[in-house]
Amino acid sequence: MNRYLHIRHGIGMRWCTLQRSVRAAVMVLPFFLMPFQGLQAQTCSCAGAPLLSSQSTGVASAGSFLAGITYEHHDISSLYNGTTRFEDATVTRTTRSVLVELNYGITDRLSISGTFSWVDKERTTGLHTSSRGNRVTTRGPGDGILMLRHNLVRQTLWNPYSVSVGAGVKAPIGTSSLKRNGFSMNADMQPGTGSWDGVLWTSLSRSILPDRLAAFATGSFRYTGSNERFAENDQYRFGHELVVDSGVSGSLAGILSHSMRIQYRSTRSDRRNGISLPNTGGKWISMIPALDVAAGERFSFRVSGRIPVFQDLRGTQPTTSFAVSGSLFIHINRNNSNGFGYGTPQ
After folding, report:
1. Stretch among 30-39, 102-111, 139-148 having the lowest mean pLDDT
2. Backbone torsions φ then ψ of 205, nearest 5 degrees
């Protein structure tokens, strides 16, 4: 009888925890889906490093610290109009960026994170001419993101779900006023955007097989501000940006683990003095496979790639051909009871 009551009590606890998780998820879903309403888009070759796409780490446990450094090579040589790809052998574009991510757990439910970047951009035009093209490069510190993250529902032995939300700002650390031959360069060749932006973030995850397989979904939304570009009262504004990821992650064998995610990105058109600019804006869907290697308790490595699946761009724009990246993570006072989310090796 005691064993029966113990089992019944355990089932009751699980059911109550699941009910609380579902209620929390329902409260979060409107926030998670709100950015979808009325979005149009922005070009993939916008200024700066892929800051919003990098916001994949979760809420750190109390006293835990994570530092990550990522190098990404982004080839932006494909040319699209809508969903149609054009052959273009006259222009090549690349963006090489270094991202530094810092995440510290204030409590088991609250953490603070910062992301900082360095950007190196290169554009070569006129490849079809006898001079073999004209190359333009820009480089310098990019913008940064500071964010607070809160864990609404913690994953436990009895509860396989985790729900977190966050909010912060994107600071205009990078310059947006580089000039060439006395003229301001286009916004997409500047290391920074020059504007203060608001950032919202949310994460949902579920453990399928403990320590073996998990499913996840994250959403990030950037509400962009404006920046004086060419003259006083000449306001340039990059389009609001939404990034949504979903996928699975888990261990393979020994020190190896993996993740596979599908990323959807959408932004509105850039605007200048309130007028939408042509040839800016679009929607992208990409596959991002990753392989992680754990080198002891404190260090882990990751290699990943970005494979474009679908593009729908407004006007004619250069866009992603492929991207590859490599990361090093350093864990201090690591505590897996709360984890760092799917984006960081456990």
Report:
1. 30-39
2. -145, 155
Six-digit token string for 202? 């949310």
Give the model's pLDDT for residue 185: 84
The string of pLDDT tens digits covering residues 172-226 is: 998 888 888 888 888 888 899 899 999 999 999 999 988 789 999 999 999 999 9
Cα-to-chain-centroid distance, residue 240: 14
Give residues with Cβ within 8 angstroms of 115, minimum separation 6: 51, 54, 55, 99, 100, 101, 102, 144, 145, 147
Buried b (16+ CB within 10 A) or exposed e, 20-55: ebeebbeebeeebeebeeebbbbbbbbbbbbbbbbb
d(CA 7, CA 13): 10
Class of domain 2-332: mainly beta
Residue ranges per structural domain of the chain: 2-332
**Average predicted confidence (pLDDT) for the chain:** 81
Determine the residue type at 325: S
Q: Report the C-alpha gap between 341 and 155 in whole angstroms.
A: 11
Half-sphere exposure in the Cβ direction for 264 (13 Å, CA): 13
